[in-house]
Amino acid sequence: MASNGTTGHTSPLPMKATSNGVFQGDNPLDFALPLAILQICLVLVVTRGLAFLLRPLRQPRVIAEIIGGILLGPSALGRNKSYLDAIFPQKSITVLDTLANIGLLFFLFLVGLELDTKSLSRTGKKALSIAIAGISVPFALGIGSSFVLRATISKGVHATSFLVFMGVALSITAFPVLARILAELKLLTTDVGRMAMSAAAVNDVAAWILLALAIALSGDNLSPVVPFWVFLCGCGFVICSYFIVPTVFKWVSHRCHEGEPVDEMYICLALASVLAAGFVTDTIGIHAMFGAFVVGVLVPKEGPYAGALVEKVEDLVSGLFLPLYFVSSGLKTNVATIQGIQSWGLLALVIFTACFGKIVGTVVVSLICKMPISEALALGFLMNSKGLVELIVLNIGKDRKVLNDQTFAIMVLMALFTTFITTPSVMAVYKPAKRVSKTDYKHRTIERKNPNTQLRILACFHSSRNIASIINLMESLRGNEKHGGLFVYAMHLVELSERSSAILMVQKARKNGLPFWNKGQRSDANHVIVAFEAFQQLSKVSVRPMTSISSLSDMHEDICTTAERKSAAIIILPFHKHQSLDGSLVTTRAEFRWVNRRVLQHASCSVGILVDRGLGGSAHISASNVCYSITVLFFGGCDDREALAYGVRMSEHPGIRLTVVRFYAEPGSLGEIVRIDADSHADKVVSTDEEFLANFKEKISEDSSITYEEKTVRNVAETIAMIRSYTRCNLFLVGLMPDGEVALALNGRSECPELGPIGSLLISPEFSTTASVLVVQQYQEKVSPNSTLETLDESPNRD
C-alpha cells in the first residue's frame, strides 16, 4: 500500500487495519477497516436514495451512481475540507480504489457473461452496418475534438494516446445500460430493440479492442517498441484464453446438472480464473478488468453453470463493491475546474460532438437500410447511451495522466448527460403501435353459450411455491372428452431489476413481443419448465410455459396483453399472501397486491385470484388420485355466475364433488339485511340469475357429483354461520362482487377489495378453514370491469 503522511504522525505510515476502540483513545476513522465500512455505508445510502428518487423518470441505476459519486466528491460535499479529510482522506484512497477495482473486475466478468458470442456471429448486415457507423463516425469526431482540447486545456499530453482515448470515449455504447433501458421501456423484443442489442454487442467488443490499444499506447515508456509488445502479448492472451477457457468450463458445465446445486469447487474455479486473468493482463500492461471480461465472454452460456455463477456473484458485486467505483471516479471529478466561457464552451462542444456523431451516424445508416424515421431516431438515441464502460475508459485515462482534471470532469458530465437523455428521448420519438383489439376474441369468459369450446387459461405465478397448486387447479379443469380441450399458458412473473440474471432471462425472448422460455432448447430448461412439461405429458392438457420480466409498475400490461394475444378466457393470479406453517396468511410481497388490482381493472377477459392454502398438497396429484370437494357460494350477479360456470367445468372431472349453495334473504327479515327497491337493473340481474340457475339445475338433474342447496338467512350472523358449515371443503369458488340483498349486507366486511366481501370473509383470521379460495371477476364488455373495485379502493397511492 502506498504510504501517505497524516496529521499527527511524525513520519508517513500506512493505515492500520483495525482500531483498539474509542475507549482506548483510538479514532476509528484513522484505521482502514472501520473507515472503509463507513465509506461503503455512506455510498450505499446516497446511491440507493438517488436511484429511488430517479425511478419515476425511468432512469437506469448507473445515473444515480454517477451522480452520487460526484456529490460525495470535491464537486459538492467535498468542498467542505473537514468532511473530505474525515470521510475520504487521501490515505484511504488506495484501499477504496482496491475494493472498487475488485468489484469492477467481477462486474466486467458478469458483463462478459451477458454477451452471447453466438449471437454476434449471427449479426445481420444491417446491424453490422449500424454498429460500424456508430463507432467510426463518433471516433473520427472524437479525434477532431481532441485537437481542440489539446490546443486549449490539455496542453502537453501525449498526442497519440489522447487522440485514441477521446475517440474511444465518444464511440462507446454501454451494452449493459442499453439492455436495461430497452427492458424498462419494453422495447427489447421489438425490431428496434433487437437491432440496438445486436449493434451494441458488436460496438462493445470493438470498444474493448480499441481500449486495449489505447492502454497499450498510454504507457510512461516513450519507446515505440513497448506499446507493440503490450498489444502483441494482449493478443496472445486472448488467443490462449480462446483455446483454454471454453474447454475447461465446458467440462465443468457438463458436470453440472439441471435442478442440482452447482458444486462450490466449480464456483471457486471461475472466481479464481477471473482473478488470475486479471493478474495476467495487469502484468502485460493492460488493465486487469480486460482479463476478467475475456473470461466472462468465453465461459459457455449453455446449462445451469453460467446462471449459477451470475447468481452467486451479482448481488455482492453490483450491490456492494461496484458503487465504490463510482465514488472513486467521483472523487477524481471536480466540476469546479470547469470555469469560464472557454471551459463551458468546450463541454458543450464535447456533448454536441458525442451526440452528433452517434445519433447522426446511426440514423443515416438506418435510413439507408430503409428503416422508418422514428425507428432510426430511436436507434440513434439508444446507441448514444454511455454509463459504466465510459467511466472505466475515463478513469484509466486519468490514472495514466492522459486526461487532466478539467478534461476528466468535462468527459464525465458528457457521459452523464448522454445517458440521462436516452430514456426520455426514445420515449418521445418512438412509440410502438398499440395492438388493435382482436375482433375474433369471442370467449372472454368461462360462462358461454357453447361450453364445449376450447378453454384457454393464463395462469400466473411468482415462484415455485405457487406451481403445485396451479397445476392441481388446472388438472381439475380438464373435464371430459366432449370439450374442445384445455390450453394453459403458465406465466412466471419476474420483476425486472438491475441484476445481470434478469437481463440474461430477458434476452431469451421470442418474436411475439414478450419474453418466453424456449421449450425446444433443453439447456435452458429449469424446474419450472420441467414441472409443466411433466404435467402436460401426464395429462391431456396443452401447456405453454412462459416468463414475463418487467417492472412491478407495468407488470399488469404484460399479463393483460398476453391474455388478449392468446385469447384467454380467464387469468388466474396468485394472492399476494401465502400460507405459513401455522396456517396464517403472511405477505409474500405487498407490491404484487397492486399488480392484481391493476389486472382486475384492465383485463379484457375474466380474472381469478387464488388464495392458496395448499390445494392438493405440495405436489402434482395425478388424475386418478384427485378427490376434491368444491363449494360455490352463490348470491347473485355476473361474478357469481362466472364462479359457478368455473365450478361446473371442474365438476366434470370424475374425482370432484361440487356443492352449490344459493343464498336468499328471508322475506320480511329485519336488521342488517335490508330490502332493495326493485328497479330495471335489479330485475334484469335477478332474471338472468334465475335463468342461469334453471339451466344449471336442468343439466345436473342426473349428475350425482353435484349438489344444489338453497339457504334462507335473516341476518349477517346467520350468513356467516351458514358459510362456516361448509369450511371442510378443499376449495371455495366465489364472485368478486356478488349482487343481492344478502351480499349487500356483507359489503362492509371487505378488507381486501381485490377479493370482495365473500373472499375477504373466507381469509379472515376468525374464519377457520384450510380450504383454498378462488375469487372470480367476470369480464363485462359494456361496463368497466373495475367499477365495483374502484368504489372500494381509489388507488394505491391513497392507501
Automatic annotation (TrEMBL):
It is a multi-pass membrane protein. Residues 628-782 form the Cation/H(+) antiporter C-terminal domain. Residues 486-625 form the Cation/H(+) antiporter central domain. It comes from the Eukaryota. The chain crosses the membrane at residues 31-50, 62-78, 98-115, 127-149, 161-183, 195-219, 225-245, 266-299, 344-369, 408-430. GO terms for cellular component: membrane. Residues 50-426 form the Cation/H+ exchanger transmembrane domain. Gene3D superfamilies: 1.20.1530.20. It is found in: Membrane. Keywords: Antiport, Ion transport, Membrane, Potassium, Potassium transport, Transmembrane, Transmembrane helix, Transport. GO terms for molecular function: antiporter activity. InterPro entries: Cation/H_exchanger_TM (IPR006153), CHX17_2nd (IPR057291), CHX17_C (IPR057290), CPA2_transporter (IPR050794), Na+/solute_symporter_sf (IPR038770). One of its GO terms (biological process) is potassium ion transport. Belongs to the monovalent cation:proton antiporter 2 (CPA2) transporter (TC 2.A.37) family. CHX (TC 2.A.37.4) subfamily. This is Cation/H(+) antiporter 18. It comes from Abeliophyllum distichum. The lineage of its organism: Eukaryota, Viridiplantae, Streptophyta, Embryophyta, Tracheophyta.
